[in-house]
Specification:
The complex is a heterodimer of chains A (about 650) and B (about 350). Chain A is an alpha+beta fold and about 650 residues long. Chain A is built from 22 helices and twelve strands. Among the domains of chain A are: about 90 residues, Alpha-Beta Plaits (2-Layer Sandwich), CATH 3.30.70; about 80 residues, no CATH class; about 80 residues, Alpha-Beta Plaits (2-Layer Sandwich), CATH 3.30.70. In chain A, the strands form three sheets. In chain A, strands 1, 2, 3, 8, 9 and 10 form a six-stranded antiparallel beta sheet that branches. In chain A, strand 5 and strand 6 form a beta hairpin. Chain A is extended and about 120 Å long. Chain A starts with 5 loop residues before the first strand and ends in a 6-residue tail after the last helix. The model of chain A has no long low-confidence stretch (mean pLDDT about 85). By secondary structure, chain B is mainly alpha-helical. Chain B has a domain of about 100 residues. Helices cover about 70% and strands about 0% of the residues of chain B. Chain B is built from 18 helices and no strands. The chains are: A alpha+beta (about 650), B mainly alpha (about 350). The interface between A and B is large, with 38 and 37 residues.
């Protein structure tokens, strides 16, 4: 239940060796880098350089996109290039061929698109029998065919110019038509239409005759254009096949070099020296030392808390059984370095609660089985959690005697081995289940308080350990009330005597109420109402603590009652399966297996998910809130820093 | 009245906003055709660009269509629960009108009335009560005033008319129109919305004004070395961080000092290498994104969302221009407000 031991590392050297140092750190893999120019670094400044690999990487990525090989997997070790100039050379070599083909492709695309547009235009003109060449041959009038956005067509009437526009047709976006203007004003009018995004449709000069014949000529040109386009695309594909591996390898190498160069920004520099600061797990110290062996640089290992400007990162250290549950702990926030890691506690309580709330031998088996593909395809941690929950569900399913909702399937087994108090049927033992659920809740709350007392003492927080609502006083107060309620209401024992009330309820409550002044006294031998607020008055103190006390008492009650849901879900599961069985009985022989399978799948999916979420809620609100302090820093190995987008 | 459905819808549309990965993909494109093809593939632009032929589209028209998409999204959102009946919810139309009037005044001063006509987005004329296209026929300030006589823009512009009959200063007219717009937004919000919603709108207006004022002040200081009084006279009288704090910014001797002061406010800049425009767009996004995520007011969510849409449009325009003029795309990507 601890975190991985770390050491602070300071690396000093001449500025010219900075790249060499970063290279060595990347080799060591597990180094967590910090900023070497933080306030504690004594005058060291960050390097403010432009990354020379960024523009060339962008060019390569763009080229790979153009050659449609951006999704290929590259291997940087296969690329021998190192300087931006070498990469630029390779880029130019491929790009010069590519851009020629790309321009040709664009020209052809445009050629085909223009003719397609013209074809649409001539289709709109099909009713016009006039010879088009006659229109274009007019001596004083210029004619232009084309289309313009309908939004802009309505502006035409506002221009005080010598032109008129004939509209042929309209679709959702464009208005199709032609405009006519005097040849002497052609340039100016063309310019106006250009600003209105008029897309001119060029009717080829050789097109003679009416619109129908123009249409068929355009169709022939489109067919020829398509053939040429296909040829050009084949050439681009050949180019891609020839160079793609070289390009993607270079891309990978560039990403690495760009990332490595950006790590320079983390180093602090002073005159011709550099300083790199960071942390290394103690187990990997040897690896780092060997990476720097023989280099003329100072590598100093220090205790993790020796630099006030750097907080050590947290690596959760867990065994095989509990490891997947670190995902849930991470969702709440990492513990601080050296703090209490609750993963094992979560693993145990989560699996047990799931088993209790979703107890079914068959369904548990299916969940355990499902964990294999989930672990392989989706998330390893998720698969691990499902496997452990599935096994617990099977164990409790056996105790409940429930197999895919059939509640009497295990009866002969228990009869055979002579156990008469099992199976435990949900609807026959309602009180037992509900009281047990609350009992589990009380037990978990008490354990959470004990953990809080232990961890608070460890970090020398007397207020939380002794006087807090989850400290010794809180534990005595809560334990006494629970003991009194259980004894009086269930066991008919009279325990509420005056000394019991005074010593086990009133005094602990007063200590919780006055926890701040008591803790200040214990720490500084001084009586104060608040550590930070000098102006706190007695009235203010009483009002503030009255409401806090009210909230503490309320949370003891609500947190305990919250565990009733554990019992509730035991019955809910049994109830839902009872519905499935009842529906099944009403079906024919053919329908029964279908209802049985669908019903089981439905209950598994719906209730499984609800139970999983409810337990997370119990863990986070009822348990974690009593002892857990997040605020830890995530451990990011230097190799992962390379993958960050912003570098 | 609660408009939770509109808030939920805005959040859904906001969820489909362009991501860093989208921008990254776009800056990998080498031609406007490729970019248009990519945009056509995005759900957000698919319908609008469905009739468009990427290989023949004009860069300017693509930019206009992107702006149109923001406007049509706004129309869809206010129609959803018939919010367009309220005066406040017409704010985006009024903003478009204000920007068109400012654009006209600039072009009128340069004698480019016909170019103005071409630049007016046609879709706005359908919803605007001002005859924006008719403005192109005005050739004097009196004609402009008479054209706008029956509109709300008449009064703010009328006051600027000089007694000697000469044309008023363009910067003053621009400021008057902007002040009028923000005033109308705040007045409508005060009249039609709850107090808490009004406060949220005032915060957004203040954010907008602060960043416009800062951009202008930065330029005035850097390129014209104007003093604090002159800068303040030209700034908008709204602020989120307080007029006093903005005055301190105007009073700085150097632009670096201005930047340092802004960094101490909510408009902190995390990317020092960005231009002032990108820096402010980024600060604007940061300030309004939070509002969309947390507010329960449809008015505030919509106002904030349209601010984000305008920034997205600016980003896309930036990329299109970069591609068209063969600029360094890694540089462009670094300047985007994401």
């Amino acid at each position: 239940m601890a975190t991985e031991k770390m050491e602070l590392v300071n690396i000093n050297g001449a500025l010219v060796q900075l790249d060499e140092a970063i290279e060595a750190l990347l080799k060591s893999e597990s180094f967590h880098i910090e900023e070497g120019f933080s306030h504690s670094a004594g005058g060291y400044k960050p390097l403010n350089e432009k990354n020379p690999y960024s523009p060339i990487l962008k060019k390569f990525t763009s080229l790979c996109t153009g050659l449609e090989c951006e999704h290929e997997k590259g291997d940087r070790t296969k690329c021998d290039l190192t300087t931006p100039e070498e990469f630029e050379e390779l880029y130019k070599k491929v790009y010069s061929v590519y851009i020629e083909l790309e321009n040709r492709r664009n020209e052809l695309d445009k050629h085909i698109a223009e003719r397609n547009e013209a074809s649409v235009q001539t289709a709109h003109l099909k009713g016009m029998d006039t010879d088009l060449s006659r229109l274009f041959g007019l001596e004083y009038i210029s004619i232009r065919f084309g289309r313009l956005p309908s939004d802009n067509a309505k502006k035409l009437s506002y221009f005080d110019r010598n032109f008129f526009f004939f509209e042929f047709d309209q679709d959702l976006t464009y208005t199709y038509g032609m405009y006519a203007c005097p040849k002497t004003e052609k340039e100016e009018i063309d310019e106006i239409f250009k600003t209105l995004f008029f897309e001119r449709t060029r009717i080829p000069d050789f097109v003679k005759g009416n619109a129908s014949s123009a249409h068929s000529v355009l169709q022939q040109e489109i067919a020829q254009g398509m053939k040429d386009l296909e040829l050009t695309e084949d050439k681009i594909k050949d180019l891609s096949d020839k160079y793609k591996m070289q390009l993607v390898d270079a891309c990978e190498k560039l990403k690495y070099l760009k990332g490595a160069f950006t790590l320079r920004r983390k180093a602090g520099t002073l005159k011709n020296k550099f300083l790199i600061k960071g942390f290394i797990p103690v187990k990997d110290k040897q690896q780092l030392q060997s990476a720097f062996a023989g280099k003329d640089m100072d590598v100093t290992f220090l205790p993790p808390d020796s630099d006030s400007g750097c907080k050590p990162p947290t690596i959760l250290k867990n065994g095989l059984l509990t490891r997947p549950f670190k995902m849930l702990v991470g969702m709440y926030g990492l513990p601080t370095y050296g703090g209490f890691d609750p993963t094992a506690f979560v693993a145990l309580t989560y699996s047990l609660l799931f088993g209790i709330m979703f107890g079914d031998l068959g369904q548990g088996f299916l969940i355990a089985l499902l964990s294999i593909p989930v672990g392989k395809k989706l998330s390893k941690d998720m698969g691990g959690i499902m496997l452990r929950c599935g096994i617990c569900s099977m164990i409790f399913g056996t105790l409940y005697g429930s197999v895919f909702g059939i509640e009497d399937m295990l009866d002969p087994v228990y009869e055979e081995i002579g156990i008469d108090f099992l199976p435990l049927r949900a609807f026959e033992s309602t009180n037992f289940i509900l009281f047990t659920a609350v009992g589990i809740g009380i037990f978990l709350i008490v354990v959470s308080m004990l953990i809080n007392i232990f961890t608070s003492f460890k970090r020398k927080d007397i207020e939380s350990a002794v006087f807090g609502a989850n400290g010794i006083c809180g534990l005595v107060f809560y334990g006494s009330i629970v003991f009194a309620v259980v004894s009086t209401m269930m066991l008919d024992m009279e325990v509420m005597s005056a000394p019991f009330i005074i010593f086990l309820i009133v005094i602990p409550a007063l200590c919780i109420f006055c926890r701040v002044p008591f803790a200040i006294f214990a720490k500084y031998r001084q009586w104060k109402f608040s550590e930070h607020d000098e102006k706190m008055t007695l009235g203010g103190f009483i009002v503030e603590n009255f409401f806090e006390m009210f909230e503490f008492v309320l949370s003891y009650i609500s947190n305990t009652m919250s565990f009733l849901r554990v019992g509730g879900f035991v019955m809910s599961h049994a109830g839902m399966m009872l519905v499935v069985m009842t529906l099944m009985e009403g079906m024919s022989k053919v329908g029964q297996p279908i209802v049985f399978v669908i019903g089981n799948l439905f209950v598994m999916a719906m209730e499984g998910m609800i139970v999983a979420i409810q337990i997370i809620r119990l863990e986070f609100y009822e348990i974690f809130s009593r002892f857990y302090l997040g605020g830890g820093k995530e451990y990011v190995p230097i190799t992962s820093e390379l993958l960050k987008d912003d570098i | 009245m609660s408009n939770d459905a509109t808030v939920a819808k805005i959040r859904t549309v906001f969820g489909a906003a362009l991501t860093e990965a989208d921008y990254h993909e776009m800056t990998n494109r080498q031609t406007v055709t490729e970019l248009c093809d990519y945009l056509k593939g995005l759900k957000r632009f698919h319908v609008l660009l469905s009739d468009i032929e990427p290989s023949t589209i004009h860069r300017g028209y693509l930019e206009q269509l992107i702006k149109k998409e923001s406007f049509m999204t706004y129309r869809r959102l206010i129609k959803f629960e018939q919010l367009d009946r309220g005066e406040f919810f017409k704010f985006y139309i009024k903003k478009a009108e204000t920007l068109q009037l400012i654009s006209f005044l600039h072009m009128y001063e340069a004698g480019m009335n016909e170019e103005y006509l071409a630049s007016v987005p046609g879709y706005i004329t359908e919803y605007s009560k001002v005859d924006l296209l008719g403005l192109a026929s005005c050739h004097s300030y009196d004609e402009i005033l008479s054209h706008l006589k029956k509109t709300e823009y008449y009064r703010p512009l009328k006051h600027l008319k000089r007694s000697d009959g000469s044309e008023p200063e363009l910067a003053k007219a621009e400021r008057a129109l902007r002040v009028h717009y923000y005033k109308r937004v705040l007045e409508a919000a005060k009249k039609e919305l709850a107090e808490s919603e009004y406060k949220e709108i005032a915060k957004l207006v203040g954010t907008d004004a602060d960043l416009i004022n800062y951009t202008n002040a930065y330029r005035m200081k850097k390129y014209f070395a104007l003093d604090k009084e002159e800068i303040e006279n030209r700034s908008l009288p709204f602020s989120r961080i307080g007029i006093r704090k903005m005055r301190e910014v105007y009073a700085c001797e150097e632009t670096d000092d201005m930047e340092r002061l802004m960094d101490k406010s909510v408009y902190r800049n995390d990317s020092p290498e960005q231009t002032i425009e990108s820096r402010n767009a980024k600060a604007r996004i940061k300030a309004v994104r939070h509002m969309i995520e947390l507010t329960s007011s449809a008015a505030a969510a919509l106002y904030a969302f349209m601010m984000i849409c305008d920034i997205e449009t600016a980003n896309l325009t930036h990329i299109i221009e970069g591609i068209r003029y063969k600029a360094d795309l890694s540089e462009i990507e670094a300047q985007l407000a994401i």
